[in-house]
Amino acid sequence: MLADDQNQAIDAEPEDSGLTLEQLTSICCVEREWVIHHIEEGLLSPPAQNPDEWRFSSSMLSRVRRIVVLERNFEAAPELAALVADLQEELETLRRRLRCAGLE
């Protein structure tokens, strides 16, 4: 990661304004085309129609990171990686609900 990329990542505040496409690609070490392809395939949900207006939340950042790891480390097909990410997210949601209910 270049020094400018690190500054860009540090300056990003995903909870407030969201990450731009460029910040997301820099942080996740993916190409712009990778993100666009995954959006076109329905594996990522675009926050807006126009890529210049896209702002990605911290939860989307986590999802992209999960998919990238699955695709790179396990050579998973994009569709399979997205399905596994869906299941991981659902599992986290269920665990959080159990904790809130005092059942875990």
Quote the distance from N terminus to C terminus. Answer: 40 Å
Report the strand count: 0
- Strand proportion, as a percent range, falls in under 5%
**What kind of sheet is the major sheet?**
none
According to CATH, what is the class?
Answer: Mainly Alpha
N-to-C SSE series? HHHHH
Fraction in helix: 55-70%
Mean pLDDT value: 88
What structural category do the secondary elements indicate?
A: mainly alpha
List low-confidence stretches.
5-10
Number of domains: 1
Q: Count the helices. How many?
A: 5
The CATH topology corresponds to Multidrug-efflux Transporter Regulator, Chain: A, Domain 2
The CATH architecture assignment turns out to be Orthogonal Bundle
C-alpha geometry: globular
Radius of gyration over C-alpha positions, nearest whole angstrom: 15 Å
Describe the 3D structure.
With 104 residues, the protein is mainly alpha-helical. It has one domain: Orthogonal Bundle (Multidrug-efflux Transporter Regulator, Chain: A, Domain 2). Helices cover 63% and strands 0% of the residues. It has 5 helices and no strands. Helix 1 (3-11) packs across helix 2 and helix 4 crosses helix 5. The chain is globular, with a radius of gyration of 15 Å.
Summarize the helices and strands and which ones pair or pack.
Layout: H1 3-11, H2 21-28, H3 32-40, H4 58-74, H5 78-100
Short key terms for the protein model shown above:
globular; mainly alpha; 104 residues; single chain; Multidrug-efflux Transporter Regulator, Chain: A, Domain 2
